[in-house]
Amino acid sequence: MTAASDPVGVAVPAPVPSEITPAASAATGHGHASAEPEGRYRVYVWQIPVRITHWVTATAIVVLSITGGYIADPFLIPPGGAVMTNVRFIHIVFAIVLVASGLVRAVYLLVGNRYARWSAFIPTTMRQATEIFRQAGFYAFIVKEIPRIIGHTQLAAAAYLGLWLLLLLETLTGFALDGLLGSEPGATALWWPRAIFGPQLIRMVHHAAMYLILAIALFHVYSSVLVDSLERNGLLSSIFSGYKYMTREEIVLARDGDEGVADEAERMG
């Protein structure tokens, strides 16, 4: 770590930047920072709204999948009656929650930090664009080294973009189907999908999209556990605390550790 001299010539440590701090000094209020190995630094990656929308979306997907499955095939109680009415109500409520969460997350594509903004998902450099192939090669056991990233890898970003498109498709088809009962906004705003494609095709697309969403979610959990076990940088805990714990080398070499982050990491050396 670089140092400066005070008026009497005694070397004192340079100020620690707010975004990256030595793990040993981050022991209060942020998980298990004090237990991190020496030489790791705390990097603030996931902002509070990003973490909240992550868990709200995950919860909504689970509830919508269960209630949607029951609406399509009421396997416990015969269809109709108060039970189906309540299940439909829960389904619509969580659909609205999902839309609200998506809108908040969309805002942070514009105003979030470098790991949440749109540029973390849409490739803006050749290195970022080709990263998805290296990442895919790692999961296919072709490439041994995982790409060095602080935030989302490009493969994860592509999966998230696909997930958002599927969730948008689910929202449109879901409200269009709800409009068959005369409910708004599907009855008025989404009459045209029913007129063009017909209710049965919309229903098939709605269910197919649900299974694709669940498949992406399953791979997301698998890849998160795998990468966390390999990198040991607090990836899993970071979606709760917001912080990852990385070595100086990882920060300097990370694709999304831009010059400002790299310079701070260099001064910590």
Write down the Rg: 23 Å
- Which class do the helix and strand fractions yield? mainly alpha
Indicate the proportion of strand residues. 5-15%
Q: What strand order characterises the main sheet?
A: 3-4-5
Helix fraction, binned, reads 55-70%
**How does the overall form come out from the CA principal axes?**
elongated
Q: SSE order in H/E notation?
A: EEEEHHHHHHHHEHH
How far apart lie the N and C ends? 5 Å
Mean pLDDT: 80
Number of strands: 5
Tally the helices.
10
The residue ranges in which pLDDT falls below 50 over 5 or more consecutive positions are: 1-18, 23-37
| Biggest beta sheet summary | 3 strands, antiparallel
Describe this structure in words.
The protein contains 10 helices and 5 strands. By secondary structure, the protein is mainly α. The chain has a domain at 19-45 and 242-269. The strands form 2 sheets. It has a 3-stranded antiparallel beta sheet. It has a two-stranded antiparallel ribbon with strand order 1-2. The radius of gyration is 23 Å and the shape is elongated. Mean pLDDT is 80; it is low at 1-18 and 23-37.
Give a quick rundown of the structure.
It is built from 10 helices and 5 strands. By secondary structure, the chain is mostly helical. A hairpin with a 5-residue loop joins strand 1 and strand 2 (11-13).
What's the SSE blueprint?
Layout: E1 3-5, E2 11-13, E3 20-22, E4 40-44, H1 48-72, H2 81-111, H3 126-139, H4 154-178, H5 186-189, H6 191-197, H7 199-231, H8 235-241, E5 243-247, H9 248-253, H10 259-268
Antiparallel strand pairs: 1-2, 3-4, 4-5
Helix pairs in contact: 1-2, 2-4, 3-4, 4-7, 6-7
